[in-house]
Amino acid sequence: MTQDSQRRPWKQKQHKMAGKYNCGRSKSSYLVESFTLNSEDRVVSRKGLERGPDPSYSSITDKECTLKGIIKGSRKKVAPIDLKTLSLHFDKYISAVNLILERIYNTPQRAEQLGKKLSEYRGWAYTLLRTERDLCYQHNDELKSLVYERLHRNALEHAGRVVLADWTRRRLVNSALDTLNESMDDALVLLRKRRVPSFLIRKIRNNCAAVKNNGSSYHYTLGILRQLRLALDTHILEALDIKISWRGRQRKRVVSLLAEESPEREKFQRLVKAKLRSWMKKGYPFTVPRLRSQSLDFSASTQNATGQGYWFTLDSVRENEILLHLKLPPGIDGTHHDSSPYKSNTMTFRFLDWLPRASMSDRESAERERDLHRKEQLRFRAAKFSDMHEQLMNTIKFQHVSHNLSRLNQRRKNDPERIAALQAEAHRLKSIRRSAPPMLLLRGHRVILQIPFHSPNGLVSSKVLGDREYTTKAGADRGLRVPVALSVEKDTEFVDLFISVDALMRKRMTLRRNASVLQSEVEKKKNNWEKKRHGQSYPRLLLKKMKHLDATWRKIRRLDTEISRIIAFKAVWFCERHRVKKMFFEDLRSFQAHAGSKDLSWNLSTNLWGKVIETVRYMREALGHSTYSVWTVNPRYTSQTCHVCGERGVRVEDERSTAERKGGEYFYCSSCDEHSHADINAARNIIHVQDKISSAVPGRTA
Question: Interior CA angle at 272 toward 270 and 277, to 5°?
């Protein structure tokens, strides 16, 4: 059996690219910015240039599919031949990672041994794995045919992270099986409760030594318990020959079978106990992880030298455009480029360095702005983009200086003065801020280059913001009427803010409904076509609808990013204005709507809460705050507890009403006669969830 696997967090070097937030190996974090790659001969589109829709479904015959025709005819950023070559490059990298994983998982004992070593190892994963003879580069012709030596280092690092994540998951599964097998009551609680009990999660984590010091293991354990519950539910229903496809109905039926008043309750308990004992005796059916993500990670490239496989060159003709040269692995024909050190094994892209233009635009806007807070925001963003541009230029300079220095050292007759000057320049560039190794992502017909930049340090932040003292706290509640309700506690007073993006949310909801209708129509037509003409290509009208559906989902994803950035931007700068040291968000990743609540489930799935939190983390990091300045806490009873006296209150229709109304917008406490907005009351309670002292809120830190 195989399992599709994405890159998991590495214990010594954690990466979290989702939400453009990345915690690096050192104490300083990285801010990841994206650049769209283009074919070398294409004119990179700037503001107002070739911004029309992409008619990728226009009729272009094979004879017309030349590079020039593709660039001017369909406005595609990457030519088909470049896209095909890059896909082959990714395929070889994926094959190398999967080959390493196959050799590691050839015997279960070896996977267990290497996973334990990686969990105790302090350093890069590839330095440990390359000591294995069948994984090292020198003794394996099969690996040599797939990748070159430095790319093999990245493949080893990638495989090491997958092995460590899978080893940790197996330890948690075994710990969960031990816990459930020892206590049948815990197993019944897991199967009868709608939500996974938090005490059971903590109990399993405490019994598992592999995750005791890992703060992210709470939701890791939550996912494993849900997986085990699904397997047990399926086993019970199969024993009764009951076929239910919808997960909500499966859960409801199993809960009814295990209820106390059920006459056959004892029989089903014996089924569960027998299944748990079978897993304990024979072992849980784990799958072998495999990598299928279309990405190429250079994070194990510790030096920006030619051997790392990527090379930057400034375009001497076009302003602010940079050429990216990739070194192709064996078996793929490339092109020769004069500015590339890889000679004929080169694949070249170009991208627009938009950082200087963005910095200049923000600086000009700040000069015209009258509002002091808005002026401060624009000035800081301009300084941040300037710092990122400087890091990228320093990286490019360091690459070229190191390359020239190595070439001079290899000559018999060299110039000592020139070598000394280059050594001094290389030493200077080595000690200043430079960007980290990049990552390439293939998303459909787009190629994205992600470059991690060092977060603005104290000097960059203090130039614009000055020296500040942060002492206050803020709480954020997710509302159904507004995306975020924010409250800041200043001494004994509160400052509140409602953050709303109604126009964008309405547009997004319309697109989601259109996509749902179009998805149903496309699936119906595809099924009908497969029944009548199985194996034949789809008709042109259906292909056009499929491309329309893909384009709609791309619009929705762009709106998701825009909405989360707007909400996070307003929240972060509101907290910056009031000198907030810590922000607390309610943790809703384990929250599930009850069965049949269509509107609530829809609202929860469209609220972008997790994306907003990640974007807030990213922006707080950019402002120079600590990684631990954003927390997620358990929201238990924060919406039903009065923030003044701590007693339970009710929802009411308006701020004057005292009669309870389910789902009302306002909150009323009969004990202290307090009226407040329900979301603001919850946000104020969220601030004190983490306090060690006694609090009116019974929740605890997640």
Answer: 90
Residue 69 domain-assigned (yes or no): no
Count other Cβ atoms within 10 Å, centred on residue 68.
11
Backbone angles phi, psi at 652, to 5 degrees: -130, 170
Strands 666-669 and 484-490: unpaired
Buried b or exposed e, range 386-395, using 16+ CB within 10 angstroms: bbbbbbbbbb
User: How far apart are the C-alpha atoms of 639 and 477, rounded to whole Å?
Assistant: 9
**Radius of gyration for the chain, computed over Cα atoms and rounded to the nearest angstrom:** 28
Tokens of 676: 């407040």
By CB neighbour count within 10 A (0-12 exposed, 13-18 middle, 19+ buried), where does 350 fall? buried
**Mean residue pLDDT across the chain:** 82
Shared-domain flag, residues 337 and 404:
yes
| 200-252 tens-digit pLDDT | 988 898 888 887 655 567 778 888 999 999 999 999 898 888 888 788 888 88
Helix extents (H) in 105-148: 108-120, 125-129, 141-144
User: Which pLDDT does position 2 carry in this prediction?
Assistant: 40
Tell me the CATH number at 528: 3.30.420
How many structural domains is the chain composed of? Answer: 3
Residue that is written with structure tokens 């056009």 in the block: 544
Same domain, 351 and 232: no
**Interhelix angle for 416-431 vs 372-410, to 10°?**
150
What are the C-alpha distances in Å from 136 to residues 113, 298, 598?
17, 18, 54
Q: What span, in angstroms and rounded, lies between the C-alpha atoms of 197 and 205?
A: 13
CA–CA dist 476, 632 (Å, integer): 10
| Phi (first) and psi of residue 626, to 5 degrees | -70, 160
- Whether this prediction's pTM lies above 0.85 is answered by no
Return d(Cα 121, Cα 161) in angstroms, integer. 12
Could you tell me which of 526, 506, 530, 507 has the C-alpha nearest to residue 518?
526
Each residue's pLDDT tens digit, 615-649: 999 899 888 888 788 988 888 888 888 988 888 88
State how far the Cα of 85 lies from the Cα of 345, in Å rounded to an integer.
12
State how far the Cα of 328 lies from the Cα of 309, in Å rounded to an integer. 8
Confidence of residue 13 (pLDDT cuts 50, 70, 90): very low
The whole-number average pLDDT for the span 391-396 is: 94
Angle at 503 between CA 501 and CA 508, to 5 degrees: 95
Q: Is the pLDDT of residue 123 over 90?
A: no
Is residue 164 a contact partner of residue 118, using CB atoms and an 8 Å limit?
Answer: yes
Nearby residues of 45 by Cβ (< 8 Å), 6 or more positions away: 51
Residue 602, pLDDT score = 53
What is the domain range of residue 381?
Answer: 306-437
Same domain, 221 and 282: yes
11 SS3 class:
coil
Query: Which residue is it, tokens 């092995």?
Result: 163
Residues 477 and 623 in one domain: yes
Condensed to tens digits (0 to 9), the pLDDT of residues 541-599 reads 999 999 999 999 989 989 999 999 999 999 999 999 999 999 999 887 656 555 555 55
Cα–Cα distance measured from residue 336 to residue 342, given in angstroms and rounded to the nearest whole number: 8
